[in-house]
Amino acid sequence: MTSSQILHEFIQIPATDYSDTLLVHFRRVEKLKSDAFTCHGIDLNQRQLSELELLLNRAFFPLTGYLNRENYENVLEKMRLTNHTVWPVPVCLDVDEAMASVLSVGDRLALNDAEGFMLAVLTISEIWQPDLEREARCVYGTHNSAAHPGVRTFFSGRKPWYLAGNVEGILLPIHYDFKTIRLTPSETHRKFHQNGWRHVLGVHCDNFLHRVDREAILRAAREAGAHIFLHPMIGSDEPSDINHYTLVKCWQHFARRFPSNITNLGLCPKIVLGAGPREALWQAVIKKNYGCSHFLVLDDHCDPLSNPDNSERYYPRHAAQDLVREHEEEIEIKMVPFTRMEYVEEKAGFLPVPEIEDGMNTVVFSGTELRRRLESDLPVPDWFSYPEIISELKYTYRPRSRQGFTIFITGLSGAGKSTLARVLLVRFLEMRNRPVTLLDGDIVRKNLSSELSFTREHRNLNVTRIGFVAGEITKNGGIAICAPIAPFEESRRANRELISRYGGYIEVYMSTPQEICEQRDRKGLYVRARAGKIKGFTGVSDPYIPPALPDISLNTTEITPDEAAQEVLLFLEEKGYLT
Ligand code: PPS
């Protein structure tokens, strides 16, 4: 296969296809399904599934498939398809080297969901290797990839080959949750039409909304003379995402707080990129495709740093509004700027920031403060939100005393990990208020990771497997005590990132010096490693990288196992995990 194959007779953007969806007639489905036995298939990840759904349901109108290279380049350079239609972010199907090497132009590829259900068939018109660095720069701007969460997500899991071609839909991705508010663009538009809504203000959101947002949205709707379409983006409905249900439930409560018949709520199955102005422009196109005539844009729309606690931004203020305004005639959707409001004590209500006079007492209540109060079981002021939203939030952001947590003990062989783990196990069992699970290095090696060796790759895999199990335990309110060597920062970091989404993550570094570990040598492993009988032994012939910022460091040369456990318990008490 050459690095770029093109089938010229495939025209990527033919005369505009105005069909409601890209789903094909059942007679064609039968043919595609029978052909699928002889063609390759891939199981799409969450991001790819979300993009396929938006292609199939025509939220990505006028696209009828994945962009070819020429369109891709044009989108990166000019934010347009080759036929000049505004299109700011590429939509291509990424596959790994192994899959790309068995595919050819003209082949059909079955596109399946995670369970293997065939959702669509792609007829491949081009296969090429994109410059991902350049794509990230064009879409996200020139930000440090380690810092920008969108850029980090872009690179994690992005495969190096792109496929182009038209898509024939068999089935829209299956969702079991919130079906009544998951309408396609055409169904949504039809609903607006039936209700006699001519002007509709599309409102993007990807976070919790409170009283101030209702005031600002109503104000914008009044200015635009429009009805309101609350259109949150929710690209993942993985049961592991505990926020998902809370978020949607809160949006439903929020929508009910508007006068009847002026607001509609619909979920958009799209993942938020955090790409600022380009993303705002993309959303404008999508909102238009759902039937909106107006689009409410924040001055820092889809900026990952957008947060009242923070004055820094990745994108210049108003850049998103300016970009959407520049294209509003072409896209045929009017940009409505979001006016920030604040709570003014003497008015006992919200005022737009420009109307707040000197000397008025405003109160700012940040997301961080809200979370702190929820986690500490403190009251949230009535003016800030609605009781039903607060009670949903309390369910997710339980006070720490009711959250699960993971104690992740890392250190050299012989540093005292297993002993500390066993003492803690007993202490937690004595407390009898949470289920406790011990995931000791040796035990895991005999069961969960019995086939793994001690290479860096396998050690990291072992550690992230432990992290996965600990994450599930933590999510469900239990205590996981993990005690592997875990010599590398990358897998420890991955565990921290995963588990702290679900509850507490406490990293305990056993800093006992190696000579003490070697003197103890209870299992005789150091002697055998020094004699060359164990290859790649941690501390002897394999590295141990100490954690940069452990929550607790313990040197068991100086303290007994009971004292070490006491230090951990005191830390947990101080942080509010123990009652
Ligand atoms: S890792 O690096 O986190 O995957 O290691 P872990 O799963 O905790 O397994 C460590 C235990 O395996 C035994 N063992 C070795 N350790 C280190 N290096 C090598 N090459 C090795 N081979 C076997 C050893 O008993 C470790 O247990 P502890 O309790 O740490 O002594």
Index terms:
globular; 20 strands; 579 residues; 20 helices; seven-stranded mixed beta sheet; five-stranded parallel beta sheet; binds 3'-phosphate-adenosine-5'-phosphate sulfate; single chain; alpha/beta
Overview of the structural elements:
- The chain is of the alpha/beta class.
- The protein contains 20 helices and 20 strands.
- The protein has helices at 26-36, 46-56, 69-78, 97-102, 132-140, 149-155, 185-194, 211-224, 242-256, 276-289, 319-331, 367-375, 387-396, 417-431, 441-446, 456-475, 489-499, 514-520, 525-530, 561-575; strands at residues 4-6, 40-43, 65-66, 93-95, 108-112, 118-128, 161-169, 200-205, 227-232, 263-265, 294-297, 334-337, 341-344, 349-352, 362-363, 405-411, 436-440, 479-483, 504-510, 552-554.
- Strands 1, 2, 3, 4, 5, 6 and 7 form a 7-stranded mixed sheet that branches.
- A hairpin with a 4-residue loop joins strand 13 (341-344) and strand 14.
- Helix 9 packs antiparallel against helix 13 (387-396) and helix 16 runs parallel beside helix 17.
- The longest helix has 20 residues, at 456-475.
- Residues 7-13 have low confidence and may be disordered.
- The structure holds 3'-phosphate-adenosine-5'-phosphate sulfate.
- Residues 413-414, 418, 441-442, 444-445, 454, 459, 462-463, 484-487, 523, 525, 534, 536-538, 542 line the site of 3'-phosphate-adenosine-5'-phosphate sulfate.
